[in-house]
Amino acid sequence: MDYCQYPSPVGTLYLTADEDGLTGVWMHPEKTEDFPVLSQAKLWLDSYFSGNPAEITFSLNPQGTPFQKQVWTLLLTIPYGETTTYGTLAREMARRTGRERMSAQAVGQAVGKNPISILIPCHRVVGAGGKLTGYAGGLAKKEWLLRHEGWLQDGREEK
To answer: Which one, 43, 84, 87, 105, has the greatest CB density within 10 A?
Structure first.
């Protein structure tokens, strides 16, 4: 496993990778090694924080349960500058898995375990009515990211 630091407007981010792709973007340090995907992730973050988000063209390899990985894949479908709710994600997960319904709480727990923050955009998930709820990096950072993407303006939903 490899590791590097990335200075961002929301504080130092710690990126980790293995030979199969990016494994984490953390607000706190983890143990690591050296892989080219880290340079690609830094370039992506440069693009994102400069307001020109690029498509992710390198491998992401988040570690988690099969259910968590399904939720994280779903998070990747939330467009830049938009949000969705835990309930909407739960309904979509139910549809994708052929279930009648899915617990929004279970989906929320998986969202909260996302190891590749910002790139897998868990910050784009809000509570009912657009309420800002939990974020591993803290609500101030979630709010900053949503403002950066143009979703929030003066503490209110822009769109």
So the answer is: 84
Which neighbouring-strand residues pair with 116? Answer: 25
**Per-residue pLDDT tens digits for 85-133:** 999 999 999 999 999 999 999 999 999 999 999 999 999 999 988 899 9
Which of 122, 125, 126, 152 is catalytic? The answer is: 122
DSSP states of 24-57 as a string?
A: EEESS-------THHHHHHHHHHHHHTT-PPP--
| Cβ-based burial of 133 (10 A; exposed 0-12, middle 13-18, buried ≥19) | middle
Supply angle C-alpha 140, 145, 146, rounded to 5. Answer: 100
C-alpha to C-alpha distances, 11 to 51, 83, 101, nearest whole angstrom = 17, 23, 38
Q: At residue 13, what is the residue type?
A: L
The answer to whether 4 is a known catalytic residue is: no
Mean of pLDDT values over 7-29: 87
- Name the pTM for this structure: 0.79
Instruction: Please tell me the number of Cα atoms within 13 Å of 143 on its side-chain side.
Output: 10
